[in-house]
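Propose amino acids for all 195 sites.
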């Protein structure tokens, strides 16, 4: 049983996630015993890491709040469109999601109706190799153009320049999103100059 849980922790990059381990048939009591016996650090309720694992706060946030999608500056950072780590974590949630606990923890929370919320969600790896949900580059570029007045101008400018240089840019997708998000004219104005 211990070997099976060791394998589980190894497959999860040094994380023991109680909810997932219970789905694999491990009891709460055994998970607690294993965590104590192996000196695992509790980083959040039901989430433990091994001594040689760096805490990945984006991943931990995702595990604790499966509905959140990393957006704006955090999405720029995850896509390499920002030259420094953001000072706060930006997330988007579906309209009606109670995000007060996130706001209380210092997250910058954006709310969208379902049709808008679902545009451009994908998964990416964090710098620690864990998978999280974020908006793709095109959705993020549309968002920062739409809400430019709330953006740091240096972050905004760097993001647009890095996107244009990217081999992974998808201009047709960008224009499709721009139309759906009602920023088509603004996006065209910026990219006529940049491309």
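Proposal:
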């Amino acid at each position: 049983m211990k070997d099976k849980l060791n394998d589980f922790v190894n497959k999860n990059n040094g994380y023991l996630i109680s909810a997932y381990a219970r789905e694999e048939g491990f009891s709460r009591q055994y998970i607690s015993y294993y965590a104590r016996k192996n000196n695992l650090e509790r980083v959040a309720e039901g989430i433990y890491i091994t001594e040689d694992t760096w805490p990945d706060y984006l991943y931990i946030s995702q595990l604790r709040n499966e509905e959140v999608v990393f957006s704006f500056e955090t999405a720029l950072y995850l896509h390499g469109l920002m030259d420094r780590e953001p000072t706060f974590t930006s997330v988007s949630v579906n309209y009606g999601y109670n995000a007060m606990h996130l706001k209380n923890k210092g997250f910058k929370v954006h709310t969208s109706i379902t049709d808008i919320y679902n545009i451009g969600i994908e998964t990416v790896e964090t710098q620690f190799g864990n998978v999280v949900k974020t908006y793709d580059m095109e959705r993020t570029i549309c968002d920062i153009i739409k809400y430019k007045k709330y953006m740091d101008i240096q972050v905004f400018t760097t993001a647009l320049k890095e996107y244009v240089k990217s081999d992974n840019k998808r201009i047709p997708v960008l224009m499709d999103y721009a139309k759906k998000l009602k920023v088509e004219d603004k996006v065209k104005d910026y990219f006529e100059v940049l491309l």
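Residues 58-194 form one domain. The chain has a mean pLDDT of 94.
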